[in-house]
Specification:
Length: 220
């Protein structure tokens, strides 16, 4: 079994009941065990949280290692089954914020629907005619004093590295995301991509699991 180690500030619990626990994951933390198995040295959130709570947990979805923000784990197989179905059927939505360098081709307040066909390679995603359809809704929220665009990103589909690739494809790699061409270092660990909202409002059976309409934490 992979090494379990509880470290300070790997996560903060945002919501917990008898069915689910939702935490704010730090960047540079794995969500679940990697393919490296027992030789993996990086912290693994699912195992750390399981150890800290003293109960078995079941993954519902994942966040990339470099990405921070909201992630949920189920406490029972029944809750995991429901959670997996919500994400597969798109009745539950994850919403992200991202920071990029400003770009003259975009205006504050605009909303874009970006589509492509994506495949995941060994390290990064790329476009291919035989790739899976990808749809992202990207809303440009603001421009700050540092010259960064603040984006609200909604991945309608759930392709690997979808948001990271789309911003790269449109000439604005996420701050700190060297894998997709960023030359700007993020002031915190990881990359400037954060899952800050989970919307349960369209999941009609959420009340059976005592979940609110939304869980929201601060964006960047």
């Amino acid at each position: 079994m992979a090494r379990v180690e509880s470290r300070v500030m790997l996560y903060q619990i945002v919501f917990e009941n008898a069915h689910f626990v939702i935490v704010d994951k730090a960047a540079n933390v794995l969500s679940v065990p990697s393919r490296m198995g027992e030789v993996e040295e990086r912290p693994i959130l699912g195992l750390v949280l399981q150890n800290d709570l003293g109960i078995r947990l079941f993954p519902v979805h994942r966040l990339d290692f470099e990405v921070q923000g909201l992630i949920m784990f189920a406490k029972t197989p029944a809750a995991q089954k429901a959670g997996n179905a919500w994400f597969e059927k798109k009745t539950v939505e994850k919403i992200y914020c991202a920071l990029t360098l400003s770009h003259s081709g975009h205006k504050i307040g605009e909303t874009n629907e970006w589509q492509c066909r994506l495949l995941r390679g060994k390290k990064r995603a790329y476009e291919a005619a035989h790739g899976k359809e990808s749809l992202t809704i990207a809303h440009l929220e603001s421009l700050d004093e540092s010259g960064y665009f603040h984006w609200e990103m909604r991945p309608v589909t759930g392709r690997s590295h979808q948001l990271r690739y789309e911003l790269f494809r449109h000439g604005m790699p996420i701050i700190g995301d060297a894998l997709y061409g960023s030359t700007e270092r993020f002031k915190f660990e990881g990359i400037a991509l954060r899952s800050f909202k989970i919307d349960f409002s369209k999941a009609l059976d959420r009340q059976d699991f005592l979940l609110p309409d939304q869980i929201v934490v601060d964006p960047f």
